Amino acid sequence: CETCSKEEAKYRCPRCMKYSCSLLCVKKHKLALSCNGVRDKTAFVSVNEFTDLHLLSDYRFLEDVGRTADAAARHCIVHSPATKRFLYCLRNKARGCNIELKTLPVGFTKRRENSTTFNSMENKFYWHLKLIFPHCHAEYTLKGVPDDKTLADILKPYIDPVESDPVVCQRLKIYTASPQSDVRILMKIENRSRNSVRYNELDASRSLLDNLKGKVIIEYPTLFVVLKTLKSDMVVLGQ
């Protein structure tokens, strides 16, 4: 068992392939690694390892996608005037802030997850935000993040040696042990070809709104927190 290292393993997680001996250890590994236990149907498989089973799995995956898209197109929420009005208002307010906000059809995961709102009284966005720490294979979802909050303040509960949560700090210790000057915050540039993926480097001292201006956002911002000292395959625009 890769969780307790005591008992003989009986189960293997379809998602991360970790061995476990009991239901308790299965739950512990899911909590520690933020693993949902669901097999990744889109995981990369090299040509040399590709078998008929993988082909059948891909075929069934495409069938599921077709059924989901068809069900989403028929869903009553798609044709709801209130939903259309809310999304139009959200995109219009974002455009006024020089942000090109794009929304996906009902049925897509990001559309379902997105909790971004705009407060007309305060004239402020409250963003749904995802933080990804690739060096630790960790990601966190934040809801209701005000657009005037700086990126440095947003990251404090995660990588600040003093203010961060002890459990999170332990998981992200490679970040908390590094100087703050080594931390880089990147955001993927949308609408580029798959063989030319580039990232914008954001300014941690500026607000979330200032960093999003002039950018294309699909549903909600996803920020990648990386370290300069560690090798990363994320290429910043212009490099």
> What is the ordering of alpha helices and beta strands?
EEHHHEHEEEHHHEEHEE
CATH topology type of the largest domain: Ubiquitin-like (UB roll)
Oligomer description: single chain
Radius of gyration: 21 Å
Span between termini: 44 Å
CATH homologous superfamily (4th level) name of the largest domain: Phosphatidylinositol 3-kinase Catalytic Subunit, Chain A, domain 1
Low-confidence stretches: none
Biggest sheet layout: 6 strands, mixed
Helical content class: 25-40%
Content-based structural category: alpha+beta
Overall morphology: globular
- What's the CATH architecture of the largest domain? Roll
Name of the level-1 CATH class of the largest domain:
Alpha Beta
Overall mean confidence score, pLDDT: 86
- Give the number of helices: 8
Function: Required for box C/D snoRNAs accumulation involved in snoRNA processing, snoRNA transport to the nucleolus and ribosome biogenesis.
Family: Belongs to the BCD1 family.
Protein name: Box C/D snoRNA protein 1
GO cellular component, one term: nucleus
